[in-house]
Batch of 4 targets.
Target 1
Amino acid sequence: MTQPGCCGFLVPGDLETRTGGYTYDRHIVAGLRALGWEVEVQSLGEGFPSPDATALAQATRVVDALPDGALAVVDGLAFGVLPELVQRHAKRLFWVALVHHPLALETGLDADRQRVLFDSERRALAHARGVIVTSPSTARALAEFDVEAGRIAVIEPGTAPAPLAAGSSSEGLSLLCVATVTPRKGHALLVEALAGLKDRPWVLHCAGSLVMDAACASALREAIDDHGLQARVLLHGEQDEASLRALHAKADAFVLPSFHEGYGMALAEALAHGLPVISTRAGAIPDTVPEEAGLLVAPGSVPELRAALQRLMDDSAARARLAAGARSARARLPDWAQSSQRFATALAAFARQAGRWP
């Protein structure tokens, strides 16, 4: 058992935001506290990873007020764009970066913005005493950022136990996609792929924020209208836990054609409900979704995505095999208590390496 310690946990925006990254942060904070750690959560301001002057001023105030020698865990959505602030306090504070996925890998960035984010995150990570990532895939990606393997700890998210989905009990398939509507999640590709399968009975339920990227959500609604799928692609917006459980319970399969995932918590949650998965081979997804539980296609490929969806719809035996694979995979998913203990152990190991732990 790791000796309890204390740390600051610095997050961009509101810790209660309903995305995978914030969900991870919330569970880890709660888990550390359950282990006896003193954890002070502070917001660095809104708008990251593109903070305005107000957010930068708030981040500066928060960091300036941290006591000398403090262990500060910082969510990578903010850490990667604060290289000057991180460097200024590198000798005074014990920085630990929590990288869900590198910022430059976000979908929809132009080449100049990618270069700026890459350079910014590389410079910030140079001053981290430790870096916690949520998958082996992200750990490998950080080699390009000059982060040595000895400074990295892989702490995969936990997954809450969930009942097996009962399914839709209807002739057509009920497909579920749980993801904030942003370009990286691939909703537009999913609609385009499904538009070629109108002759088959199916309905797609999409749960996830429609306001975090209003332009992307507007384009998605337009695509749904253009294909005449208003009655078959249902945008539910952000849902609470009870509503998500209800959507999972009535689903027959889970679909997420993401262009990149640092882990894919929504995919793990689908496996926890025993749902067969259609996703992509991007980022950490092949690590999260085992071959026996899902069909993984090339990111961005509408023909491959449509073919996988068609197979799921037409081949009930294959669908049953994938569901059985998902049920097997659910038994191997770590829980949040295990993830929190590993997180605490990693923090202690980083501190010991620096001679700051008994």
Target 2
Amino acid sequence: MEARSVEEIPTGHGWQYEPKWDGFRCIAFRDCEEIYLQSKAGQPLGRYFPDIVAALARLPEQQFVLDGELVVPVSGSLSFDELQLRLHPAASRVQKLAKAHPATYIVFDLLGESVRVYLQRPLRERRGFLETFARSNLRSAKYLRLSPATTDPRTATEWFKKVGGDLDGILAKRLDAPYASGERTAMVKVKQIRTADCVVGGFRYARGSRLIGSLLLGLYRDDGLLHHVGFTSAFKASERRELTKKFEALKKPPGFTGSAPGGPSRWSTDRTGEWEPVDSRVVVEVAYDHFTGGRFRHGTKFLRWRLDIDPRQCTMDQVECREGKSLALLQR
């Protein structure tokens, strides 16, 4: 089930609100001894999360289908970096990571149990079934938690204030709606959109082209070095030729004096790992929804050129967020 983006938390009768956790969406299937974890894109995840597979295997219920989010808590907050490290081809490496930092599966929907299928049941009923399931199965379970839910918009607003650390936003779901797989008709998401002034430290050419595909963004840390934090690429085709001329004229190493882009972009397999450094004199203002682990979690939206900003003013304190503190919301 997908969510449609909206700007404000909806109010009125018939909504259920939930935190939107910063992790990997995952459907968990169990049929007796067989357990299968599936990503949002339909890919198998079980080999990367053996700790969760083992935790599900220990539950009393032998047959179920759960919808939830895979996260990795580290020192009281969620680490998206540790989560991504799990996607490693070597099973021995995955086992080592799982032992060092076990994952948690945060459950927010029950799609089936035993021989019963709940997809066509309204969310109001599914949540009731889920809470009953949680009381019987999750109270003492390791690495498995029930995500909170409320029908009170004031509580949802309080959760929304925590967005930016462990929380990626707020979800609002229609209580009378069935589980609409692949559709965006019964669930919306609200994110906090922020802005930041960033230095352009380099660029990448678009795949198969000599025109700019994305600008690479940097921020200064307390160490005085310019660190790579993300990219922006939402430029019109008509603008890319002029952008290419502008930044090719500014080519100059090192571009980033701190952490630099290394290898292919984590945000898109279509981008080449090669990048061109430029003189760090251009400042852009971008909009973003989430900054964690020292970078923008998603691509940013270009807003404007900032000719009035000195690059040295583009510091990391613009994007500092409340790390952790939201895990206390989780229930057994």
Target 3
Amino acid sequence: MEILGIPIQALAGQLLIGLQNGCFYAILSLGLAIIFGMLNIINFAHGALFMTGAFAAWYGTTQLGLNYWASLALVPVIVGAFGILIERCLLQWLYKLDHLYGLLLTFGLALVIEGLFLQQYGSSGQTMPTPESLQGAVNLGFMFLPIYRGWVVVASIVVCIITWFMIERTHLGAYLRAGTENPKLVQAFGINVPLMITLTYGYGVALAAFAGVLASPIIQVAPHMGANIIIVVFAVVVIGGMGSIMGSIVTGLGLGLLEGLTKVVYPEASTTIVFVVMAIVLLIRPAGLFGKEK
């Protein structure tokens, strides 16, 4: 069976890969949007922290004997704590300065983290086995769905929905949004805004680490894996709207599917289609699809 002259198995397979990549884009851009919205920091170290999460999962699984589920639970917490340390020691001094200072600092931090892993493990990368409970595939009739890739899609979407609900539909989210717009007023009500900001950065970093753990059995764990994906993720954030939670989720998933479809229809354009979309969106709506016009 074919659709537009393309075998349905090939089309479905590429769309699945695109959806999987879109899930990584959505989680990473969601973390970036949270950090920018609350801290006003363009966190260029996000890709390096994604890579750190993948390496931590690989090391815990292959060197320390942890199973995949333990790594999935522990690594985001550990890397998130490292993010809190970064915020307390470095980023807290930049909130009242221009965006450029935060961008330069986090870019330098990304280079340092990548350089340390490159020196320790080299550039060839490491492989992490798929957990036994998620091996194999399910026959859907028109394609075989690898169980692990299906798990990545489900887990990513669930985490994105929980994060959106927490920020947009709870009192905690209301405090976060109010703290962004008028921190002095929020502090007058007895809320510890600096602590809230610190924990927000830690959560954004934990999302990057969570994506790293999910990606580790699929993508070769290497020092440059974060640098390879972060440019696309920044494009997703710009298209969705800087600081927009829903924009990050919808745009990440949508562009992943578009990228997968392009690989089938016109493979030569698959690496540039995201940036073409970004250019078109910025021409029509500079604030992004879900961003607020000033």
Target 4
Amino acid sequence: MSDENNKRITFEEFIKTDQKHISGVDNELTALLKEILLAGKSISSISGRAPISGLTGTDGSVNQHGDKVKKLDLIAEEEMVSALRRATSVCMAVSEETEEVIHLNSENGNYIVSFDPIDGSANIDTNLSTGTIFSISKRQSKIGGKPDEEEVLQTGDVQVVAGYFLYGPALVFCFTAGSGLHQFILDSDTGTFILVRENCKIPGHGTVYSINEGGVETFSAGVKNYIRYCQEGDPATGRPYLSRYCGAMVADIHRILLEGGIFIYPRTDEFPSGKVRMLYECNPMSFIIEEAGGMSVNGRKRIMEVEPDDIHQQSPIFIGSTQNVKTVLSFLENQDQ
């Protein structure tokens, strides 16, 4: 914590007093973030009771990505949408679970929010970590007119805030407003989020690589050879690296944020354009990692420079410590031509 006397700094106190790290966060945005915090606490609580509340398993439907929809996916989406309605400053939202743009509140809403209500929902039934990812951007058109749905298709560089909740042994909240990355943990006794790490920095190099190796035969030559590189012994570079993959992007990247390393979700034969969603997964996590000093690319260019043409556009992603990302890029540049 930043205070020399170990004073417990709440999120509300941080927002009020630490303006040097949250430039651009106005009253509307502060109110919006507080509503999102309430949604995160609610989703965490509902998730914890899911096994005894009959909320595990699927609801029998499939979303636009072909994924089986979990009951908690829909409940978490409802919690997030309710939070955004309460904030009154959001004109539109994009959710992984809804095919079309969600129109909210009045035409005076100043912000657009994209979110993944439950990241790693396949982990729900086995009581493993999940999360929620969100991205906030500012509306570009004139306030008071009908919002233009094309405005949601912005590059990651226009984000004003990105953040995530990690639902694990502790409820973690990380966010950036473009002036550093800050981590909070929920104090369950008081119901308040407490600052635990200010201006988080990812190590420049790490010895963890996170990838679903089950589809390795469908990976490109460059990715295959990089995995072999990670598995080779070389004390000078700390190899072989540790393979860690839990099936929730939030959990895997949170580990890498703290310990260093790289998270990879490449193109495959089944998903030639990649699988991770640009607006509510790639962009916010890239903003977060870059603010911590790391890198995020799609294999060819910086993720946050990519112009999306669909609200559910998918992409490959290579994200984490700068040295690790640069190394994998050297494999891709030399072997994926």
